[in-house]
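re: ur question from earlier - yeah i can do the single chain one, its not a big deal. heres the input i used so u can compare w yours
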Amino acid sequence: MEQQIRPRLFTRLALVTALLTLGLIVFGAVVRVTDSGLGCGNHWPLCNGTIFPPLDNLTAWIEWLHRLFAALIGVFGVATLVVAIRAYRVQNRRVLGITVVAALLFALQSSLGAIVVVFDLPPTMVTLHLGTAMLLLASLLLAAVVAGYQPKVHYSADRVTSLAYLTAALSLVIILTGALVRGSGATLACVDWPFCNGQLFPSDQGEWALIHMIHRYSVLALGVSLLLLVWFALRERQDARTRTLAVCAGIAYLSQAAVGALFVLSAAAPVWGAAHVGFAATTWAFLVVLSAVEWLNSRQVSDGMKESQWKPQSEAQN
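and the output i got, formated as tokens:
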């Protein structure tokens, strides 16, 4: 009985920690769009040399609460790792390995967060900080899916599987380029949408406009890839879970693109900036789960093919 409770507990802990990580990513976006990244100065883990910020300093409180949120995820992450060690140290060690990777990513993310504060928010470090948070979210979701998902259908990897992997990778690319846009100050380098100050290719408008449009082109590439993924998933997949995940990813993407346009047209209103990051992270989360499901559904067929190829060779040797 205890052996069944532990895997269930692990799956729930991993999902809760993943949801908290998603919340932290959105909270981090709030920190950026409100220019609260240095609300506590260059001090870490203290806030302007004190444990608690002054009551009249809103930006300091936003940054301090962001750090407190990260500490809460650390507590849940340690609990998830402990349960993983107890439940999967003998069987299904793949889950334990993924959880250990998640723990290492959390440690790296925390270190990058400290570096970002101490060195006055360098754009490259801000981008790496967000990218690590996305990988942490992905690893937690992957661990939960591998631990709790039981495939009901099996098939060989096909174009839907490949599109799921490709679209997930593109989703991460637009998140990283978006962070670079914000961190480099290129948010309003293009004040209209979908063009950049009336041009489709702003080659003569400077580096910031180019960075901004690279992000938009990445979003367009993701949209095309995701449209194909949803189309083929609805046509070629009978499993309702796979179809639902693809459609949810498409809805999250459309919401992200619409909010991104509103962010530009509203002259970078903070509420749209935070929502933009939130929908981007949600799109990434759906695509990670879909990729994991596709991998698990096709893994048994792939393993069976490898085994059938190995057996005749071993029998011939005997």
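Confidence is low (pLDDT under 50) at residues 302-318. not sure if urs matches, ping me
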